[in-house]
Design a protein that fits this description.
The complex is a heterotrimer of chains A (529), B (288) and C (333). Chain B has 288 residues and is mainly α. Chain B has helices spanning 22-46, 78-114, 116-130, 134-145, 149-160, 162-176, 179-186, 191-227, 239-246, 255-287. In chain B, helix 2 (78-114) runs antiparallel to helix 8, helix 2 (78-114) packs parallel to helix 10 and helix 6 (162-176) runs antiparallel to helix 8 (191-227). Classes of the chains: A alpha+beta (529), B mainly alpha (288), C mainly alpha (333).
Chain lengths: 529, 288, 333
């Protein structure tokens, strides 16, 4: 998943989820004492939560939606079979209370929760689960890949759902927990309003999930309304209504937060202003899997020369760069993968060295290079781009920085010799599994492999890893990571945090590192008094 | 986005009728030239840093004697950047106008000199472009080809020429009917030479006035395009881009976006006053 | 008059066709891959190819243009790559907000323009000072005006709301006009009307400012010219008061150029909606266009451009006719 103005997306893969238990990311929080409230009993307007979006979500249809902005709508309206525990990479029950995996890792048996109601009032059974999975495959949009490995499905009884895979797929259970993973959709949508397009029309303005909130208004460009569902199977949320308002200017959002007209800003808050927040708001920071990458174009001079490209390791003081550009809301990357999804990675071999850097620039066949970045509201990639430009200029490079739109970036692979020499991009895996990171970035056909990284060894290692026994797979992913780092074709600069800026009386912030920009709305509370 | 049809449409005699020639054009050009020279020199004389230098003061240094407008998010001197930015904005605006005037002038001169079917065809084409909403079209062009300073200037030039074609064509037609053109024709002067030597110079004055009136609009148009992310990419010190990229600091470090925005306003004001002056002096000569 | 209307209609169609050609040519030259962006990074090459084929992006250009024209005359603007809705449906969702804003701003620009223009006429130190102030006003970038307005009227004075079209807890009626000021009155909901009205003030003023100043200057210039004409001198010599002369004689005759200018300024106003709608979170076409640009959503970009272009052409067409009606000399031109 890529972070950009157009927030189009990405994806990921698995490793035995259980193997990962215990490496959950710790969450930290800064600021914010519980509110010094004023009101006594929660009045009606107290139970309305107002949050802004910077842009419309594409569609609230879980089998099409593949962006970041909009996650909170999907995850509030729908449930999947499993999910991640708060602040962690551990897979926990959602609509499935338990599940078993056969020894050959081909058969997954999910035992479903009883007494779950869809927003249309019907009770969920395995039949709806199967119908939802079939629908995702039939709609066949970006997130459909997660179900492609399925050979067959079965519903032996109303509360048991069985999936048979064609071959073992390590990240499969993480797919089920992904925010873009399959969600269970009710019969009102998939039968009554199916139409001729698998209910795509109806679901573009309605929902029929089992989540804590029902999408009751979807007024594009204006506001979305989530209303507390009366027969939600879990704990009843505090807020009766969530109003999501499209406010495309972050400055307007800031003023409205300050004036109490919105309750929280979930992303793109200017980091430089976090330490001068008005007294009625507080910020909370959590680790996410969003990572800042520098892609190198090796298909043309000067970076087709491995020695020249290696000198890039010496150009930039990365800790300083990350500290300055993100004002403390990011940390230098530790390895090729987010640390929480692949432990024990060797330290990245990047160290500033003026002499080596200058020698690299000197050896280059041309000193004129282009550094592209995708536009984002917070301007952080621009800032990084300009800082790197200054560092490279010091080494003797002549760098042109340019801003590009995401669809242009997707076009680069078709004509790599006219693509930029360097490119900055912030990406996140689709789930907490190393495969969901490696496959999109490092595989020669990966969807986020924008500048044509190609290494047959990496491709074959990744193929082996997909079905290898979990322990073996882990070492294969590590091998892949080291190959990529050694190639100097992708540089891993920083791990970006989720920063939520909230009204001071809002508490109960829970989030999952694999779900960027997203607070679990059902857990939020207003604490008065 | 502030682009679009721009100059007051009054009833005035053509400059040619008023007997304004190359001399009038030269006079009208002087203020524009002076400001351009000032803009060229300004940064080299007054800037204390280069536009890209990261100073030792660090980011967000408050305005002080040493850094009159403070430093920006990367620690660059805002004062120096505003000076360089003013130069870049001014030259960009002038560039678009010169390209527009040259292309529009060519179309207008050809139409005016040939008359007949050529005139009709070219003027219908001009009308077509005039009838399109220039600002919307400029946005569409840049959105399609991708933002860069070059594309932005190109897109603006595409929508900026038709007025000049109209003006030049009008002046050339008016002049062609005058006795001195008639005399030249009788003396056997060729058509090309007639246009270049005798007719075109007469159109200079109103074109230059139109250009002066346009600079301010262009500066605002560039700033607006930058604001919606379709202008000059960083680190170019272009005022609109500096201001829109600095907007996120409006509440914490207001000088970062405000200094260049005020720069835009001052620059546009200078241009508008110049244009107004040029327009008035032409008005006085043509309406009495 | 009939032949004038006929000729203008032909011109209208020609201009619209020109617009379609330009807009289509733009899509053809872009180097990006919107289909890839749409289906997402993990989609297999087969899905991308299949989607590209479905959307017709794999056909040769002339064929695509023919398809495009064919669909266009049938009122089909293709499907947005982002919202997955027919673009016509999206335009239907977003256009009423822009219509309400643009109409209000146009009326405001006209009223302000005429008012300020009259104040400018007559010379004197006050008028000259005012002229200077207006030129100053015309030099402020729109985004700065918008932000300063929010800072003052929302953040500091708490007088006006900063964003949106209406307070977020009010229920918005669905029709009949989709213009909230009108619908709220039709449904007899004063609260809704008041909310819509207060939300409209800042965006409409910001949008109206530059066109109003241009109209004022044009009006003043042509009034001054007319005040020097013989018949005005006659009127004056008959002892009519200056203000009366101005309003009875000069203004009427100066209205032509000012009206033309107003029509042309409508284009400026349309260009301004992108900036204004973004800052005030106004859910209209400018917002739709801005979101579509980030996605390289070409059907949406072209659809919006065509709609705004058509609005502009039609407005100027109407201005032409109004002038011809007011001034018989034009009919023969």
């Amino acid at each position: 998943m890529k972070l950009s103005r157009a927030r189009t997306a990405p994806l990921c893969l698995i490793l035995g989820a259980l193997a990962l238990a215990g490496c959950g990311a710790a969450s930290t929080s800064s600021g914010g004492s519980p509110a010094s409230g004023t009101t006594a009993a929660a009045s009606a307007s107290d139970q309305i939560l107002r949050i802004p979006y910077l842009a419309d979500m594409s569609v609230p249809d879980p089998d099409i939606f593949y962006d970041i902005e909009g996650n909170s709508v999907i995850l509030s309206a729908y449930d999947g079979l499993v999910t991640y525990a708060p602040g962690s990479t551990t897979i926990v029950p959602d609509l499935a209370t338990s599940w078993t995996v056969s020894p050959d890792r081909l058969t997954y048996t999910f035992h479903l929760r009883a007494g779950v109601h869809f927003h249309d009032g019907t009770v969920m059974t395995s039949q709806e689960v199967e119908r939802s999975f079939q629908r995702r495959l039939a709609v066949n949009q970006a997130p459909a890949y997660m179900l492609k490995p399925i050979a067959s499905m079965a519903t032996p009884n109303p509360l048991t759902f069985v999936v048979h895979l064609k071959s073992p797929v390590n990240p499969f259970i993480d797919y089920m927990a992904s925010s873009w993973g399959p969600k269970v959709i009710g019969p009102d949508a998939l039968v009554t309003h199916a139409g001729s397009d698998h209910a795509q029309t109806w679901l573009s303005t309605h929902d029929d999930g089992t989540g804590p909130y029902e999408l009751t208004t979807f007024a594009r460009g204006r506001q979305y309304v989530l209303t507390r569902s009366p027969d939600y199977w879990g704990a009843q949320p505090y807020f009766k209504e969530v109003l999501i308002k499209i406010t495309p200017d972050i400055g307007t959002q800031q003023l409205e937060l300050q004036n109490g007209d919105v309750d929280a800003i979930m992303h793109s808050f200017p980091a430089s202003e976090l330490n001068s927040l008005p007294s009625n708001v507080h910020a909370e920071e959590f680790p996410s899997f969003l990572r800042l990458l520098l892609y190198v174009n090796t298909n043309k001079a000067p970076f087709n020369n491995p020695a020249v490209r290696a000198s890039l390791r010496a150009d930039v003081n990365i800790p300083q760069l990350v500290a300055e550009a993100y004002s403390g809301t990011a940390t230098p990357s530790i390895g090729a993968y987010p640390e929480a999804i692949l432990p024990n990675q060797p330290t990245l071999p990047y160290a500033p060295n003026a002499k080596l850097a200058a020698a690299g620039a000197k050896a280059a066949s041309t000193k004129n290079i282009t550094l592209a970045y995708t536009a984002d509201e917070s301007g952080v990639q621009r800032r990084v781009g300009e800082l790197i430009q200054a560092d490279l200029a010091q080494a003797g490079w002549n760098v042109t920085v340019k801003e590009v739109q995401l669809p242009q970036v997707y076009g680069y692979v078709n004509n790599l010799s006219s693509a930029p020499d360097l490119m900055l991009q912030t990406n996140t895996p689709d789930a907490s599994h190393p495969d969901t990171w490696a496959r999109i970035l490092f595989d020669s056909t990966g969807g986020l492999n924008f500048l044509g990284f190609k290494d047959p060894t990496v491709d074959s290692l990744l193929n082996q890893a997909l079905s290898a026994p979990p322990a073996k797979a882990t070492s294969l992913y590590q091998q892949v990571g080291q190959d990529v780092v050694a190639s100097n074709e992708i540089f891993f600069l920083g791990d970006v945090k989720n920063v939520f800026v909230l009204n001071r009386d809002l508490t109960g912030v829970e989030q999952v590192p694999a779900y960027p920009w997203t607070v679990t709305l059902a857990d939020l509370k207003r604490t008065a008094g | 986005m502030a682009a679009g049809p721009r100059f007051p449409i009054g009833r005035r005699r053509s400059a040619a009728e008023a007997g304004l020639g190359a001399a009038g054009a030269r006079r009208a050009l002087i203020p524009l030239e002076i400001v351009t020279v000032v803009m060229l020199v300004l940064p080299t004389v007054f800037a204390t840093h280069s536009a890209l230098d990261i100073t030792t003061a660090g980011p967000f240094h408050h305005p002080s004697l040493r850094y009159p407008f403070g430093t920006d998010d990367l620690g660059r001197d805002v004062f120096s950047r505003v000076l360089y930015g003013a130069r870049a904005s001014w030259l960009s605006a002038l560039g678009v106008i010169v390209v527009g005037a040259a292309f529009g002038g060519l179309i207008g001169a050809v139409a005016g000199a040939f008359g007949g079917i050529v005139d009709t065809l070219l003027m219908r084409l001009t009308d077509l472009f005039l009838a399109l909403p220039a600002p919307v079209l400029a946005i569409a062009v840049i959105a399609s080809v991708g933002p860069s300073l070059f594309h932005t200037l190109l897109a603006l030039s595409i929508v900026w020429w038709p007025w000049y074609a109209r003006i030049v064509r009008g002046e050339v037609r008016a002049l062609a009917a005058r006795p001195h053109a008639e005399a030249a024709r009788l003396a056997g002067v060729g058509r090309a030479r007639l246009v270049l030597r005798h007719l075109l110079p007469g159109a200079f004055a109103p074109v230059i006035v139109a250009m002066s009136l346009d600079v301010g609009n262009l500066i605002l148009a560039l700033a607006a395009l930058s604001f919606i992310g379709l202008g000059a990419p960083p680190p170019a010190a272009e005022l609109g881009a500096m201001s829109s990229q600095g907007l996120e600091y409006l509440f914490g470090y207001a000088w970062v976006p405000i200094a260049p925005a005020v720069g835009v306003a001052v620059l546009a004001l200078t241009a508008n006053l110049l244009g107004e002056k040029a327009n008035r002096s032409l008005d006085e000569r043509t309406t009495r | 008059m009939a032949s004038l209307v006929g000729r203008r209609l032909v011109a209208l169609v020609a201009v619209m066709f020109g617009l379609v050609v330009i807009v289509f040519a733009l899509q053809a030259v872009i180097p990006s891959d919107p289909v890839r962006a749409m289906v997402g990074a993990s989609a297999s090459p087969q899905i991308v190819a299949q989607e590209r084929h479905k959307l017709g992006y794999d056909k040769p250009l002339p064929e695509r243009f023919a398809d495009y024209l064919d669909r266009l005359v049938h009122g089909n603007l293709e499907t947005s790559l982002r919202t997955r809705n027919p673009v016509t449906q999206d335009l239907g969702t977003f256009a009423p907000a822009t219509l309400e804003l643009a109409l209000s701003a146009a009326v405001l620009a006209g009223v302000l323009g005429v008012g300020l223009g009259l104040l400018l006429v007559g010379g004197g130190r006050a008028a000259r000072l005012l002229r200077l102030v207006l030129i100053g006003g015309a030099s402020v970038p729109t985004f700065l005006t918008a932000l300063l307005a929010i800072l003052v009227f929302y953040s500091t004075l708490h007088l006006l709301p900063a964003s949106g079209r209406v307070s977020d807890t009010l229920v918005v009626p669905d029709g009949p006009t989709k213009l909230l000021l009108v619908d709220s009155l039709l449904h007899g909901e004063p609260n809704l009307f008041w909310s819509a009205f207060t939300h409209l003030i800042m965006p409409a003023f910001t949008l109206a400012l530059l066109p109003a100043l241009a109209i004022a200057r044009t009006l003043a210039t042509s009034c001054e010219q007319i005040m020097r004409e013989d018949y005005v001198r006659t009127a004056r010599s008959k002892g009519l008061r200056e203000r009366r002369v101005l309003i009875r004689h000069a203004l009427r005759n100066a209205a032509g150029p000012a009206l033309t200018m107003s029509g042309l300024q409508f284009g400026l106003l349309l260009g301004g909606i992108v900036v204004v709608e973004q800052i005030y979170a106004w859910p209209g076409l400018g917002l739709y266009l801005d979101q579509s640009i980030a996605y390289s959503d070409f059907p949406a970009i072209t659809g919006t451009t065509l709609l705004l272009g058509a609005a502009y052409v039609v407005v100027n067409f109407t201005v032409d006719l109004a002038q011809a009606w007011a001034d018989p000399r034009i009919r023969t031109v």
